[in-house]
Amino acid sequence: MLEQWQANRLLAVPKVYTVTNMIDLAPGVDYDYQLESDDGYEVFVFDVRIPRLNVSKTRFQLRYQRNIVLARLCHSAPHTNPDGKSVESPHFHTYQEGFDDKFAESLESVHGVINSLEVFCRRVNLPVPSVQGGLW
Fold first, then answer.
1. Helix, strand or coil, per DSSP, at residue 111
2. pLDDT along the chain (136 residues), means of 10
3. Where does 1-136 show beta strands of DSSP type E?
4. For residue 83, how far is the Cα from the chain centroid?
């Protein structure tokens, strides 16, 4: 478990792609891309999930130490936060101490996969990657 200041620092640190900055956005994609902080000290995983049968459930996620979700942008069903507040899709989850990634906020101005990717990258301090496949 992270303290909130640690999660905030990890989200804010500039990130770079370690292998490639080309990602695939074709339906059916379920890839993990390796990232690191620009100083090479921290290691992250960038998950891209686009279901083949229901592309409206696209998800971008940033993990730290393979199992700590720092941020996630979801295009799926509405979400209910632990405080009972309902959040429409798309929505953006961020790590909160004591709740992990259970809280989300609505992203009403986000439309489409490319725009979602751009917003996600901006929020987690990651350069927007080059894109191939499935620009639907």
1. coil
2. 96 96 91 96 96 85 96 90 93 96 91 90 96 70
3. 15-17, 22-24, 29-37, 43-50, 59-64, 68-74, 79-80, 86-87, 91-94, 104-106, 130-132
4. 22
Angle at CA 126, nearest 5°, toward 88 and 30? 65
Alpha-carbon dihedral sign for residues 72, 73, 75, 77: positive
Domain boundaries, the chain: 4-129
For 40, phi then psi, to 5°, come to 80, 5
Tell me the two tokens of residue 108: 């009403």
Q: Whole-angstrom Cα distance, residue 90 to residue 110?
A: 7
Strands 59-64 and 79-80: unpaired
Beta bridge partners of 87: 79
Pair 131, 33: CB distance under 8 Å: no
Q: Are 55 and 36 in contact (CB under 8 A)?
A: no
Q: Structure pTM?
A: 0.93
What lies within 8 Å, CB to CB, of 123 at 6+ separation is 11, 71, 73, 92
